[in-house]
Known about the structure:
Chain A contains 13 helices and 2 strands. Chain A is mainly alpha-helical.
Amino acid sequence: MILGQDPLYAGDIWDALPVTLLKAVAAFVFLLVSVMLNIWFLRKVISDFQNRIGPNIAGPWGILQTLADGIKLFFKEDLIPDNADRFTFKLAPYLSLVPAFLTFAIVPVGGDFNGDGSRDGLVTILGKPTFLQVADPPIGILFFLAMSSLAIYGVMLAGWSSGSKYPLLGSVRASAQMVSYEAALGLAVAAVVLQSGSLSTHDMVLSQSGGLANWAIVTTGVVPFVVFFIAGTAELNHPPFDLVEAEQELVGGFHTEYSSIRFALFFLAEFMNQITISAIVVTMFLGGPHGPSLFLPDGWWVGTIWFFLKLSFFLFAFVWIRATLPRFRYDQLMDLGWKFLIPLSLFWLILLAGLRIGDGNDWGLGNYAAWFIGWFAGVALLSGLLAMAMNTARSERLAEAAEKEASRG
Amino acid sequence: MTVTENTEVLDGAERVKRRGDDSAVLRLSEAEAAMIGADPDAPDEDERVLLNMGPSHPSTHGVLRLMLEMEGETVLRSKPVVGYLHTGMEKQAEQLTYLQGCTNVTRMDYASPLFTELAFSLATEKLLGIEVPERAVWIRMLMSELNRMSSHLLFMATNGMDLGAVSMMIYGWREREEVLRFFEKVTGLRMNHNYIRPGGVAADLPDGWQADVEHLLELIPPRLEEYDILMTGQPIWRERLQGVGVLNADEALALSATGPILRSTGYAWDLRRDEPYLAYPEVDFDVIVGSFGDSYDRYAIRLNEIRESMRIVEQILDRMPAGDYRVQDKKVTPPPRVRIDQSMEALIHHFKIFTEGYQVPEGEAYAAVESPRGELGIYMVSDGSSTPYRMHVRGPSYINLQTMPHLMQGGMIADGVAIISSVDPIMGEVDR
């Protein structure tokens, strides 16, 4: 069953239809509204960072500014360049928008997770017990990886089909960047999957119940969280990894030639992805809807409130990063991805896997010690090889440059 | 310097003299460039792409245009194309009297207008053979140093923005605005001041100027510390600038680069020290030099020059002499307003100066000042009339532009942006 282990689908499928539709529509509306608020939030917070006022005309505190911009963009002239591949050019914005919508379906936005998780995160909608997420497929988090890979096509084809040089450079950067960071992202996800023992996002949240010490950020030892957050930021094309757009270099990157509503769709997708990736980080590492009920009466809304608090923190973190950091250069970005993030997350994954085996087989101290020595030796050996390879490549480059210099006379 | 040393200098600059495919400079006419992209279906001979950057591009600092020959993201050869802001100011100067001349030249380098006014005034005064009063000299020095600060603060803003640190743009502008507020108080305008004029300055400093300057001196140093946190020590920032756009001293000299570009190569050349003008020998300051000649050095030099300028301003604050703010030569300086009602001669002088202008003795003069961008010189030829026969400006932005292809060669397109930013050209001065 593609929609997963939700008790909703245990019975007749037609009975479940209204609830499913309701959840899908609610998620859709929620995403659209929250994107609107997210853009407003970004502009407001970043203007605080920069001693500006920010939007303050449309609606109270300028909260309707995004809506106004959207309406304006909708009525603007839609230009398609002569050199463009018309079909692909029109298709691309939707290719980046649809995955952004779909990914959110697997995020548990709340549920009765309080306490030790004995209530299994169930809520009752229209008299039926169900999870507070649109779908809980058994492949779970792999769906997220698949969708984020799919979203590359939107960006890549947009740049390619524009028939112009700057967008082309942007799309070349996009494909290289996203493919490189996908690997680190996947390895960080694998670390969490090792701990939770399941790919399903619902199970991931369940496995983190029982307080802060059980959150995956602690149980996986922070490193996968950091790797995931960096790689996720790169995956979003968010500063400091916004090379794909890079206003100062490529004017607008892949969306240079886009105008009107198609441009707005790219923007929508970008901010929607930002929300989605924050939600995934919260789900995977920060216990999703877990949190103490404090003074509130016990119930499913506590989880939802905690979820949104955690989500907001990450949205703020994104704005903070945007306001602070300069942009990476293309080759530095590749270096960070391939030479740092991927080896780091790979070693960490192996370490976690070893510990996990030890846990299952009741290793003694000696076995653990042997394992650690072996792991360290492996890390040392591989880092040595990597360093050697880098050195060789560098000296070859230098020799080549010197040769070139010499041949110039 | 002996002759043998001189040839060595030229040998060291071999790189900038290369021609052909190895050259950093793309020598390609517009017609040839148009031919290359004309047929999109033509088979690609090689992997090289011709990319046009500007004149309207977010980081070409106005209307600079670059023709880049690229291989992937790597810039091979490039060609800066200028002329998109050409307004014929140099030619116009021949129609304007010496009094009107300052309004004209102040519009050239709009980020540091007082320096062009200063160079113009110094050249005119050389021809006139007049000495400006002590106080005028010190006021000029005060305003120049404050202008150097505002110009470098603008650089901090644009450099930050070009590298993607967007908040830096606002911070730089914010501090610059504080300096401009003082300028507005003194000269009446935020830019294009027409404040420094042949014979002195347009008006005395307003009452309470000391307090304003002290406020600036208190305000800016902690802000510069913040820049250090935000940029100087930032690993990404360093990665982006260190080793990018490297030039050595020989090459910089061969390309007649001046200002922070020359100083970044370790060659200490500052007209304030080496060919002193105004009262610079009387104040104490350091010439900041770099050691690697890269974009990071150019950034660091400018940041520290703001600090040096503040040091100079502090000394000026203590030592500002009393006296006249302009020369009391009735042929050059218009009479005070009140005198016009009392004296016929004053009325005639006033009328003559503002209609016909004053005659400047025949001759030629060159006056150079150290502008924030390098040596800014004005060469003036007078035929004895009240307008210059010829005025030529040695604009540092224009001359520094020719280092650009050499800085860019072999870098990536993102480095190109960092390099344009670190050369810091002001297009108004390039296309005068």
